[in-house]
Amino acid sequence: MAKLLFSGVCGLVFSLFSVPAFAQTGAGTFGTILGVVSDETGAVVPKVTVSVTNQKTNITRTSVTNDEGFYQVSALLPGTYKVEVEATGFKKHLRPDIDLRVNESVRADVTLQVGEISQTV
Hints:
The chain has one helix at 2-24; strands at 31-39, 49-54, 60-64, 70-76, 79-86, 93-100, 105-107, 110-112. It is α/β, with parallel strands linked by helices and 121 residues long.
């Protein structure tokens, strides 16, 4: 009986320690691309949509810059990405070939250039 009780206690202790270790294994499989969007004067550009696209799978995730011009796209699989930013009054910005590895954060700041004024009649 004591042997059975000891085996049960050992099994319980083992399972308590193995569950947190197992739960953490998935945490290190993703990466993050983040940065600040600003204009040529250095002023931040808030409320701009930033698209982050995996160049192999063509899967796109988006984020909107906050009041400080900051954006972050998390839980990205490792791979090569491009960052695209379009804002009214600015030229479209494309930054390709951003390599992202497991459990890595890559900073991809964007400086937007004032767009050309065009008129359609």
